[in-house]
Design a protein that fits this description.
Elements: H1 2-9, H2 24-48, E1 58-66, E2 69-73, E3 77-81, H3 83-86, E4 97-98, E5 114-116, E6 120-125, E7 151-158, E8 164-172, E9 193-202, E10 207-210, H4 218-223, E11 236-238, H5 239-245, H6 250-256, E12 260-262
Length: about 260
């Protein structure tokens, strides 16, 4: 009998009785709680941006600098600089070999020049205060460090009337000018322009954006220069304006960004 009752209990069905109470207070409390919970859920979704779908972007930025400058360099004379000269992509006029620092996500423009006349690979005295010596034993053949201008040959040679320095294998004569010309020889680089093209693509959404508007034609780009109010969508920027927006003075910055030449 006991076993039969247990099996019979498995076939039981339970239901709950629903009681509807007409009460303004309880009804108001119910919908207030439901509203608070709904607002909390919506707030958390907005706060954590759970309603958004994310995707990694692929982008590319290209720059193109334009401008022409005319300089009168001591010991050389008049030189006209174009893109390949001040951008450092090839040798320039009068056998000036260009050496420009390189860095990712950047471009460089020559603004000043230090010239050492008739420089070539040779042996010559080191410039004081480096390499001061009194005898050959003070110079170590093959020695060089981050302060020296070349590799020591092991000889102590005359630098001037009062001093001797270790002879080095280097670009001779060694660059002796310490301070760059002021004002900068290429101060007109302030009026150079740079075209910046930026392309951004979201692969998951197959969506592409550019900083050059679709309705812009080549003729529009040739004559425009960016201005915050009159031409805010032009991708061509004047270098002087870029420096000004960075709260700097171009004439001062151009002097300190050194540009060494060998001739």
């Amino acid at each position: 009998l006991t076993m039969g009752c247990r099996l019979f209990n498995l076939c039981e069905y339970e239901t709950y009785k629903l009681v509807r109470i007409r009460s303004v207070k309880l009804g108001t409390l119910k919908w207030t709680l439901n509203g608070v919970i709904l607002m909390f859920i919506c707030f958390m979704m907005l706060w954590n941006k759970e309603y958004q779908e994310y995707d990694l972007i692929t982008s590319s930025v290209t720059t193109k600098v334009k401008g022409v400058a005319h300089t009168n360099i001591p010991y050389i004379g008049e030189v006209v600089w174009d893109v390949v000269d001040y951008s450092g992509h090839s040798p320039v006029t009068l056998m000036l070999t260009v050496f420009v620092f390189q860095e990712r996500n950047s471009f460089f423009v020559a603004t000043n020049v230090i010239v050492t006349k008739n420089q070539k690979q040779d042996k010559c005295p080191e410039i004081p205060p480096w390499g001061l010596c009194k005898a050959h034993m003070d110079c170590e053949k093959g020695f060089s460090d981050q302060h020296s201008h070349g590799v020591q040959t092991g000889s102590c040679v005359k630098y001037d009337i009062l001093r001797k320095t270790c002879e080095i294998s280097a670009w001779c004569p060694v660059e002796s000018q310490k301070r760059p010309p002021r004002p900068a020889l290429l101060a007109s680089a302030e009026n150079f322009t740079v075209l910046i093209k930026n392309n951004i693509r979201f692969p998951a959404f197959n969506y592409i954006r550019r900083n050059i508007l679709p309705e812009m034609k080549d003729s529009d780009l040739k004559g425009c220069i960016y201005h915050q109010f009159t031409n805010p969508y032009c991708p061509i920027f004047r270098l002087g304006d870029v420096v000004h927006e960075a709260k700097e003075k171009f004439s001062d910055m151009a002097v300190e960004i050194l540009y060494h030449e060998r001739c």
